[in-house]
Specification:
This protein has 17 helices and no strands. It is mainly alpha-helical and 315 residues long. It is elongated, with a radius of gyration of 24 Å. It starts with 23 loop residues before the first helix and ends with a helix.
Length: 315
């Protein structure tokens, strides 16, 4: 089960007006810190440092102070400093219990901790406080997905998309839920929408998987090829296209793709196993044995690798 927690781009940053302090010099520094703290394009480390400056400056109270804690908590979550993030977001909720931002961002922390029930409870509260917060619906959908509630997840993604018709991540997440339900037509439509809005490696991999499982191998290979074009040093495009090449009977093409996959991710037992299968079909017995042994080293008991070694008289 994939825990995407959506969270790669589920930025919920609270922005508020800022009041300058009395000192002009102090005011300029504080203003800069505030702008970076609440800036939606601020670099991660810069945001955390700027929000810390706002908090440590002790000049803000109420909603503004809560916003600083909320935004620093978001940044710490992205840095995977989850306990520190949770502390900040607890403080944000304590200071401003009407902050949908704080509840949504705290839900993200619980989701990363795989405490999906508490995540959903926080997303519920965020939605209660702001029923137009598309991110909260998307994030709640992800937690429902990770609990196995595919229909509930789809309902949340539907709402997120209604609120923001250009919400690429929600299309991708809904596509994944439909894929899990084996509803390939809806999955394909959602992944295509995701690609139109924000084409990236994962979008093409996911749509390629739909084509693969629908036995549209040429289209699957084309999507994996796009994934390779976008991220040539990521093993996933190479190994997925390698599998398609083997399915199509292009053994040498499959072997070349797995060579690349293993160059970029030598820890994947299945790539070693599949390259071993290709080498075995090409008559490279010693190369196949070496690959199958490596696959078993990484994943002891892998049935296909063990059976292949037995057929080759090497086990």
């Amino acid at each position: 089960m994939r825990v995407s927690v959506g969270l790669l781009a589920s930025l919920a940053v609270l922005t508020l007006a800022w009041t300058a302090p009395a000192s002009a010099a102090d005011g300029e520094a504080a203003s800069q810190a505030w702008d970076v703290c609440i800036g939606t394009t601020s670099a991660l480390d810069d945001r955390v440092k700027a929000c810390s400056a706002v908090i440590d400056g002790k000049s803000e109270t109420g909603r503004k102070l809560a916003a600083a804690y909320c935004n620093r908590g978001h940044g710490l979550t992205d840095k995977r400093e989850l306990d520190a993030a949770l502390s900040d977001l607890d403080e944000a909720v304590k200071i401003d219990p009407t902050s949908a931002c704080a509840f949504n961002n705290r839900g993200r922390v619980y989701a990363f901790k795989h405490d999906f029930d508490r995540a959903i409870a926080d997303y519920d509260q965020a939605i209660k406080l702001d029923p137009t917060l598309a991110i909260a619906y998307n994030n709640r959908g992800e937690s429902r997905y990770n609990k196995g509630d595919l229909d509930g997840a789809i309902d949340d993604y539907d709402t997120a998309i209604k609120l923001n018709t250009n919400y690429a991540m929600a299309y991708g997440n809904r596509g994944l839920a439909y894929y899990r339900k084996r509803d390939m037509a809806h999955a394909l439509a959602d992944y295509t929408a995701r690609i139109k809005l924000a084409p990236d490696l994962l979008a093409y991999i996911d749509r390629g998987n739909v084509y693969r499982d629908s036995e549209q191998l040429d289209r699957a290979a084309a999507d994996y090829g796009e994934a390779i074009r976008l991220a040539p040093t990521d093993a996933r495009g190479w190994r997925n296209r390698g599998m398609i090449r083997l399915f199509q009977g292009d053994i040498r093409g499959g072997l070349a793709n797995y060579d690349k996959a293993l160059q970029y991710d030598p820890s994947d037992a299945f790539s070693w196993n599949n390259r071993g299968q290709a080498r075995m079909q090409l008559g490279d017995k010693q190369g196949a044995i070496a690959d199958f042994r490596k696959a078993l080293e990484l994943k002891p008991g892998l049935p296909t690798a063990r059976e292949a070694l037995q057929r080759l008289g090497a086990l």
